[in-house]
Design goal:
Blueprint lengths: L16 H17 L31 E7 L5 E6 L2 E3 L2 H12 L8 H4 L1 E6 L5 H12 E4 L2 E4 L3 E4 L8
Parallel strand pairs: 1-4, 4-7
Antiparallel strand pairs: 1-2, 2-3, 5-6
């Protein structure tokens, strides 16, 4: 019986079309099933609208409370002033805010209308800023959160000259 020699072609053609289809299906699956996570530290900050600046000032609006936090050479807290008046510490700042806005936290309360503007030295340690925010925003008392001021803004940081 004669023996047949089979000759195999040198190159085998591979059809890439099904593989490309599968890759596109995987890409579309992951794109549609992606859930965007809210960024960490998402604070309840209300930014002013651009049109609000052109509007007439509201008679019910309370002028902002300006709190200046000055830093010592090592970055520690040197002094606190509220509307130009020196304060002894964060507890006194909290007491002054409590005296200013009271304990009513309803939708039309003074606490809802008041805004605090922090002017912090560039070299001030961040822990002091957090303590100041805590002093004006509220405290936990008897297991309940006592909210004070929610509208907080910061002046742009200024690097020291030199």
């Amino acid at each position: 019986m004669p023996r047949r020699q089979s000759s195999l072609p040198d190159k085998i053609a591979i059809d890439m079309t099904p593989m490309i289809d599968v890759v596109f299906q995987l890409i579309s699956f992951f794109m549609f099933s992606l859930k965007v996570v809210s960024p960490e530290g998402d604070f309840d900050i209300r930014m002013p609208l651009a049109a609000a600046a052109a509007a007439a000032p509201d008679d019910q609006q309370v002028p902002p409370v300006r709190v200046k936090l000055s830093a010592a050479a090592d970055g520690s807290l040197a002094s606190i002033t509220m509307n130009g008046n020196p304060l002894a510490g964060f507890d006194e700042l909290h007491q002054q805010i409590m005296a200013l806005v009271g304990t009513d936290t309803g939708p039309n309360s003074l606490a809802e209308k008041t805004e605090v503007e922090f002017d912090c030295d560039y070299s001030l340690k961040y822990a002091n800023v957090v303590q100041a925010i805590t002093a004006v925003s509220g405290r936990v008392r008897d297991g309940q959160i006592v909210e004070l001021i929610r509208r907080i803004k910061f002046t742009p940081p200024k690097k020291p000259a030199g």
